Automatic annotation (TrEMBL):
UniProt keyword annotations, A-Z: ATP-binding, Chaperone, Nucleotide-binding
Protein name: Thermosome subunit
The keyword ATP-binding is annotated on this UniProt entry: yes
GO molecular function, one term: ATP binding
Biased composition (Basic and acidic residues): 545-568
InterPro entries given in the database record: Chaperone_TCP-1, Cpn60/GroEL/TCP-1, GroEL-like_apical_dom_sf, GROEL-like_equatorial_sf, TCP-1-like_intermed_sf, TCP-1_chaperonin, thermosome_alpha
PANTHER family documented for this protein: CHAPERONIN
């Protein structure tokens, strides 16, 4: 379609409607093909290298999609949808992209058959509604118990990079479950993920551990202080125990050495008075967000008190929740309610650094997972793996219903759609059939990445699902370890219902957006940065065309300036 000049004020490029629609769908399909090989326990990792040469190795779909540079607007829509899934449920990004890509590829086939995008959207919408209805029917409610927590985390971690690097993945799952159980409220189905602190240090992955308290990545202030204290009474302060510097410029006029001595003595007296107040409160461990002077440290050391200065604000919040302490409002009047407790506070060497452990809190509402790996790249990936496990448990705690993993849910829904679509009149039936085909891409991608034959797996999976007992839902999915189709519930391969629900809803929204775009109008940039043969680089309108001008009339940014008089 051509646009006569004068209709739009700016230069516009316009692609044909049919080409634009298919181009948008192809972009989504290509993005899906790029990430599909990382899906499942047997999926491969992706390496991303940024412009600075730093590399990232990951199987996490959300991380990879946020890192890559994508110019096509339709691909950006798919990435935004995946990020929505990631932000909402913490997992399922690759599943959503694979589904969108398959739906887009199938939509292209339908469009080439002459079916209108509006009909395809309606058919996909009907299939989505049927999928959600089926999800509500077949999902099973379970009690909030450690056993089901463990099975959910083990299933989630099986598809992550670190599962193959950690010697005892069962122990890692147990660490995540214990951490979540320590900080969540099962009576109200409430959990705050940020209450779990994740601390990273280089080392062996087998040394990863859970601390029922807080780890502070700092050392004890003074070598004269004790290195450990039992039955610790902890105080958190947000005041300087040092000479105070004014926030505004100030000036003190001193005319004699006596005045200087008197001024310094007054500063010391004020600091010493605050330090004595802390010692009198009974606290033997001090965490300060601000500075602690050498004199104050010496006084603490003489009285057997441990102090840590310049502690991060977030660490103070974690200490509050773990120890029951509260940040002191004023040192002048310390309340007993502001003092927290812990069984042990000690300094320990971890790798090449020393860290302070606050352990043995009675009812900690904040815990720390210390993760170890042999390089910073894998520490980052380990961190993402731990978070995915925590988010899966959060999803289940908020909505304690599960479905079978290994692609079993998608296979059951696809079979249900094929049964129902025969009662649908018109071409929407074809769109619903394509939706069912796309759902089957989840188990088939798992099978393909595990080395199973595509066609054999497809026929066998459909046969088992269609012949299963109608009175009882049989969750046939892919067992990637055995490379065969199995009943996933018997293998305790579970996934949260809320995760599947979010993936299906977001997938339908994204594909509806892509099918609803039939034309792209792109504004031609007015300003072009370019370099002339004689050296100068600048930006101005029309810079993409061949031209000449006097360099004196352009400033350093390439903007045209008023020239000297002799140019007129």
């Amino acid at each position: 379609m051509s646009i006569p000049k004068g209709i739009l004020a700016d230069d516009i490029t316009n692609a044909g409607r049919g080409e634009t629609l298919i181009g948008n769908l192809l972009a989504a399909s290509m993005l899906s093909d790029a990430i599909k090989t990382s899906f499942g326990p047997c999926g491969l990792e992706k390496m991303y290298i940024d412009i600075m040469g730093e590399s990232i190795i990951t199987k996490d779909g959300g991380t990879f999609l946020r890192k890559i540079d994508v110019e096509h607007p339709s691909a950006k829509v798919v990435i935004d949808g995946a990020n929505t899934v990631d932000n909402s449920v913490g997992d399922g990004t690759k599943s959503s992209v694979i589904l969108v890509g398959s739906l887009a590829k199938n939509a292209i086939e339908l469009i080439k058959l002459g079916i209108s995008p509006a009909v395809i959207i309606t058919g996909y919408q009907r299939a989505t509604e049927l999928s959600l209805e089926t999800l509500n029917e077949i999902s099973e409610t379970r009690n909030l118990e450690k056993g089901i927590f463990f099975d959910l985390v083990r299933t989630a971690l099986s598809s992550k990079s670190m599962s193959s690097l950690v010697d005892d993945s069962e122990n890692l799952s147990k660490i995540i479950v214990d951490a979540v159980c320590s900080i969540c409220d099962l009576k109200t189905n409430y959990i705050e993920v940020d209450d779990i602190k994740i601390e990273e240090k280089l080392g062996s992955a087998s040394d990863t551990k859970l601390v029922k308290g807080v780890i502070i990545d700092k050392t004890i202030d003074n070598s004269l202080m004790p290195r450990q204290i039992s039955n610790a009474k902890i105080i958190l302060i947000n005041e300087e125990l040092d000479a105070v510097r004014t926030k505004t410029e100030s000036e003190i006029i001193i005319t004699s050495p006596e005045q200087m001595s008197s001024f310094l003595e007054a500063e010391k007296t004020e600091v010493l008075r605050k330090v004595k107040k802390i010692a009198e409160s009974g606290a033997n461990v001090v965490f300060s967000r601000k500075g602690i002077s050498d004199m104050a440290q010496t006084y603490f050391a003489r009285n057997g008190i441990i102090s840590l200065r310049r502690v991060k604000e977030n660490d103070l919040f974690w200490l509050e929740k773990a120890t029951g302490a509260k940040i002191c409002q004023t040192i002048e009047k310390i309340s007993p309610n502001e003092i927290g407790t812990a069984n042990h506070v000690y300094e320990k060497e971890i790798g090449d650094d020393k860290m302070v452990f606050v352990e043995g809190c009675k009812k900690p509402k904040s815990v720390t997972i210390l993760i170890r790996a042999h390089s910073k790249k894998y520490l980052d990936e380990f961190h993402r793996t731990i978070l995915d496990g925590i988010y899966v448990l959060r999803d289940f705690i908020q909505n304690p219903k599960i479905v079978g993993g290994g692609g079993a849910f998608e296979a059951i829904v696809a079979n249900k759609i094929r049964k129902v679509m025969t009662s649908v009149d018109g071409k929407e039936q074809l769109a619903m059939a394509k939706f069912a085909d796309s759902l089957e891409q989840i188990p088939l991608t798992l099978a393909t990445n595990a080395g199973m034959d595509y066609l054999s797996t497809l026929s066998a999976l459909r046969s088992k699902i269609s012949s299963s007992n109608n009175g009882r839902c049989e969750w046939y999915g892919i067992d990637t370890n055995q490379r065969k189709i199995t009943e996933t519930f018997s293998k305790k391969i579970f996934e949260p219902k809320i995760l599947k629900e979010q993936v299906i809803k977001t997938t339908n929204d994204v594909i509806s957006i892509l099918l609803g775009i039939d034309d792209i109008f792109m504004k031609t940039p007015e300003m072009f940065t370019h370099t002339h043969a004689n050296g100068p680089t600048h930006t101005h309108k029309g810079g993409s065309l061949k031209h000449e001008h006097h360099n004196e009339r352009l400033d350093r940014l390439g903007k045209e300036q008023r020239g000297p008089h002799h140019y007129y």
